[in-house]
Amino acid sequence: MTTETRSTHSPAGTASAAAPDAVPRVRLACRQCGAAVALGPSYVCPACFGPLEVAYDLDGLRARIDRATIAWRAPGVWRYRELLPVDPPSRGLTVGSTPLVAGERLGTAIGIERLWLKDDTRNPSLSFKDRPVAMAAAAVERFGMGTLACASTGNLAGATAAAAAALGIPAYVFIPADLEPAKVDHALAYGATVVPIEGTYDDVNRICLEVADETGWGFVNINLRPFYAEGSKTLAFEIAEALGWRTPDVVVAPIASGAMFTKLAKGFEELAAVGLVERRDVRFVGGQAAGCAPVATAWSRGTDGIEPVRTPDTIVRSLAIGNPADGAYAVELATRTGGSIEAIPDVLTAATIREIARLEGIYTETAGGVTVAAAAVARTRGVIRDGDEVVALLTGNGLKTPDARQHGVADARRRVEPGEPGLAPALPARLADVLGWLGVDA
Amino acid sequence: MSAVRIPPVLRAATGGQKQVAVAGATVGDVIDALVAAYPGLEQQLRAPDGSLNRFVNVFLNDTDIRHLDALATPVGERDTVVLLPAMAGG
């Protein structure tokens, strides 16, 4: 039996324990009618059927949170614990505190002179999904639910499986049966039970809604969704802290359900409400795959009425949600802030993945290609203006979707000539042959 | 009579029943009959203008009715109407 612990409390927990009232005052409230609901694994308002979300006593928190305390804490999402819905779990992964990289070469290529890239490919399971899952895993422990589960387009499968492994509890991940093999293997590696469903992500989600009711398991994005969604705010917190406690002019992010997109705005708003940043306008630009773009379509038509897409047709599986739960809220946010929601063709997504890797050394999965392409389109249409400081979110690692970057490229692995980028022919294991092919005189 | 599956958050209005039998030729008729039989569902299933609450997703068997004929979708005796919260997933 090992005595090893991977507590997420230390050293930050020391300071928290010394505080007179370390438990944040949080509650569940209906996003639609405002009704208060007891804190627990609930996600639907019993009064009006609207969505529940976590609300904080922000006035009370103003005196209990400051930049110096946060700066002193260990890296990771729990450094912002006062603005999170649950305390850290007894054992968990170190999630977050990913770098904000100056994307100068990429910015020059797409006409954005002050471009930052939030490199969230570096999380433990290689996507931003580790952030919301960290909250859900802590909630599962708090509420004694025993099993972690999810309906996933892929990235969430790995994140849920990894968090359950770290916590030492079973995980069940439900996925579309035709998901990319790398994502399936990733979840299996952590010991999760993977349940493929013959259908789209929306079919998987429908099944899981009823499985959650029957089993009582902690489905991170269903009965724990109010807690889970809060984890995405840590992206906003980290961006603001990395910029010296200020907000950028524009944030560009991918949209699947729209939950992360809208929680970025909630994160910036809460930072302003507790006095950690000055309140400034931030424009929100979203990106979707053209082959599954219900939110972009609604935005372009000037309505928040989302028409679901029955059969997504895109290589961007991580964003392929045809019936996005927060779609209407995402449209409202982009519209209210003067942003936009762009629909990106797969060929452009693949080309952009290659450009990000070539110009910045960051290999993203498909959603990253969509995001940077959306930034470029928004720049062209004037949503992003001269001099704007722009943060684009790279939310997943390219190794999860290894075939995507070659989409639309004819004969991508063709033999190349010396000095040309690409895959060289297999050469004999003799120095003279290698130098000869390189054109270098020995 | 077709079956209607009731999610947990609505079961207080149906006396705890997970599934009820309701008559109706279309999905709209079934929901009208459901609300008539269990008036406590009115506030959760209807918007103030009488239309279906946008946070309710309705399925006929396994298909979202928005991919069929919406509330005009015909319902047979062996069909099951499923009511689910819209706010899940992602």
Protein architecture, described:
The complex is a heterodimer of chains A (442) and B (90). Chain A has 442 residues and is an alpha/beta fold. Chain A is built from 16 helices and 13 strands. Chain A has helices spanning 12-18, 58-61, 67-72, 104-110, 130-143, 155-167, 181-189, 201-215, 225-230, 233-242, 259-273, 294-301, 327-337, 346-360, 366-380, 431-438; strands spanning 26-30, 36-37, 52-56, 100-102, 114-119, 148-151, 171-176, 193-197, 218-219, 250-254, 283-289, 340-344, 389-394. Chain B is an alpha+beta fold and 90 residues long. Chain B contains two helices and five strands; from the N terminus they run ββααβββ. Chain B has a five-stranded mixed sheet with strand order 2-1-5-3-4, covered by helices on one side. Chain B is globular, with a radius of gyration of 12 Å. Classes of the chains: A alpha/beta (442), B alpha+beta (90). Chain A binds chain B through residues 32, 42-51, 151, 201-203, 205-206, 208-210, 213, 221-222, 225, 256-260, 307-308, 310, 321, 323-326, 328, and chain B through 5, 7-10, 12, 43-45, 53-57, 59, 62, 64, 66-67, 82, 84-90.
What features would you highlight for this structure?
heterodimer, A: 442 residues, 6-stranded mixed sheet, 37% helix, B: 90 residues, alpha+beta, 5-stranded mixed sheet, 5 strands, 23% strand, globular
Number of strands of chain A: 13
Mean pLDDT of chain A: 91
Overall shape of chain B: globular
The arrangement of helices and strands of chain B along the chain is: EEHHEEE
Structural class of chain A: alpha/beta
Contiguous helical run count of chain A: 16
How many beta-strand segments of chain B? 5
Rg calculated over all Cα atoms of chain A: 22 Å
* Cα end-to-end separation of chain B: 35 Å
Largest interface: A-B, 38 and 27 residues
